[in-house]
Amino acid sequence: MKLRQKGRHQEWLQQIVFIGPGLLFFILIVVAPFAMGFYYTFTDWDGISNQAAWSGLDNLKKIFTDDERFWTSFWFTLRFTAVAVILTNLVAFGLAMLLNQKLRTKKVLRTVIFLPNVIGGLLLGYIWYFIFVRGFAAIGEATGIELFNLAWLGTKATAFWGIVIVFVWQTAGYMMVIYIAALVSVPKDLLEAAKIDGASSGQLLRSIIVPMIMPAVTICLFLTTSNAFKMFDLNLSLTGGGPGYATESIALNIYREALTYSHYGLGTAKAMIFFFGVALITVTQVLLTKKREVEV
Amino acid sequence: MLERKRFSTGLFTAEVIGILLALLFLSPFYFLIINSFKKLKDILIDAAKLPEHFNLDNYRRAWEAIDFPIVFMHSVVLTCLSVAGLVIISSMTAYRIVRSPSLFNRLLFTMFVAAMIIPFQSVMLPLMKISAIFELRGHLYGIVICYLGFGVSLSMFLFHGFIKSVPREIEEAAVVDGCSPYGVFWKIVFPVLRPIVATVVILNVLWIWNDYLLPVLVVNNTYTTIPLAIQLFFGQYLRKWDMAMAALTLSTIPIVLFFLFLQKHIVEGIAAGSIKG
């Protein structure tokens, strides 16, 4: 009897020692703020005073009826995510196909193409800010190509593509690594057999390679979608949301609403809408691609 | 013979295309590095030209302007403490969840995984409130705790996937020999986890080292890391390209070296981490 009690006591102690620290920090830093967010959504919290008065649906009403800037950023983020996800994955897959061949330089090439990924978005944004402002001008002068003489960060359309270029440049290497890992596992004899049967390279790609690497496609689409939709650092340093607020991502909009204008309640309300947006988009996307995995 | 020749010309073309693409990927670094040695007026005249002489003056001024030794140490200490803490707490949590799958622990696991979808922006504002209440603001330990809370989900998930495949038998002998449950974990199980520890360390180092937003919100001026220093720098000297390029070069060197030394592990770690994820 006593022994069993001691055993149960031991079990409890182990549960606390092993799980306690992780769970404590997780609750303190993620669960509690997230739950508080639902409350602050309905208040006029300004971040400074300790009071946050209940304001009912005011914040949501304001966002949905009288906040053009938020919807501009929402629409920008959606368009950016769509374009960036497609381009990043096409480039990454193309690079993976290229560098999965028996090239003499493949190790060096993979390293070089992965390199931008280890540097943070904030630093990369500033490096590219210089390139768009000074570097492109120098190339334009030397080559006479009009494309480089544009004020890239100065107009709505070019600033959009500017961010897309940097995002693809930064992220493609990471996705390439995942695609290569998947391509390596495609059985060689299957490809050989199909080739002997007279399959063209297009058919090989469509009917064997892509279906075999669908799990990697799911992961890469998930990672790029969630990174693009949540983009912040790169946005802050490269365009700062400009010109005007034409390239302001949702993440940046939320940050400014709270920290620049001290509308913490309103910012929190936006952050909650943002959460539902992220959840909806990523879950739908994973479900859609997962379904294709099962079919194969 | 003919077949072989065609094969190698194909590979040769692929090689050339690959090298050209790699040069294109490197071209931003070309601009960054050459201009970090030039005088401001030479940058303004032609940013693409190689410098006439290598002038280290920009580096000296940038070194002082961003207080490089101090912000570098801040980044190192913060990253090391956070990553070490994450490895410890998330491996322990994952071990317990795998070895003792009670209803509570299974629910806990689901909660950790579900939370990975929550974007940082959705918790950051109330988190500022919490960090003020618990006096985490402005302190190194405060921001380390924030990283532990945010990082534990993914790291725990990666450990969980790995520990599931660790056979229980290796623990049983130790239990018979009278080893305590904690001893079993640290002496028997943890050493087996080495490959996944490497993955967890790498993913978290890349994240924490480069993170800008969390330090801004929690410690801001009291504990300046490299990304914060760069942001402050550009707020002050936006068009001082000569110093700016030197500051950016200095700031990218540590993480680039980290990558080049450990690239084999990093690439494997990312492939492994994503497949499990």
Most extensive interface, chain pair and sizes: A-B, 95 and 90 residues
Radius of gyration of chain A: 25 Å
* End-to-end Cα distance of chain B: 46 Å
How would you describe the oligomerization state of the chains in this entry? heterodimer
Stretches of chain B where pLDDT is under 50 for at least 5 consecutive residues are: none
Structural class of chain A: mainly alpha
What is the total domain count of chain A? 2
Beta content of chain A comes to: under 5%
The helix fraction of chain A, in percent, is over 70%
Number of helix segments of chain B? 13
From the spread of the alpha carbons, the general shape of chain B counts as: globular
Overall pLDDT level of chain B: 87
CATH superfamily of the largest domain in chain B: MetI-like
In the CATH hierarchy, what is the architecture of the largest domain in chain B at level 2? Orthogonal Bundle
Query: Helical region count of chain A?
Result: 12
CATH third-level topology of the largest domain in chain B: MetI-like fold
User: Any idea how many domains of chain B?
Assistant: 2
Could you please describe the fold and organization of this structure?
The complex is a heterodimer of chains A (296) and B (277). Chain A is mostly helical and 296 residues long. Chain A folds into 2 domains: 1-33; 68-295, MetI-like fold, CATH 1.10.3720. Chain A has 12 helices and no strands. The mean pLDDT of chain A is 87. By secondary structure, chain B is mainly α. Chain B has 2 domains: 2-49; 67-236, MetI-like (MetI-like fold), CATH 1.10.3720.
